[in-house]
Amino acid sequence: MAEHTSSSITIEAAPADVMGVISDFARYPEWTGEVKEAEVLATDAKGRAEQVRLVLDAGAIKDDHTLAYTWNGENEVSWTLVKSQMLRTLDGSYTLAAVGGGDRTEVTYQLTVDVKIPMLGMIKRKAEKVIIDRALAGLKKRVESGPAA
Question: How far is residue 127's CA from residue 124's CA, in Å, rounded to a whole number?
Answer without folding.
Answer: 5
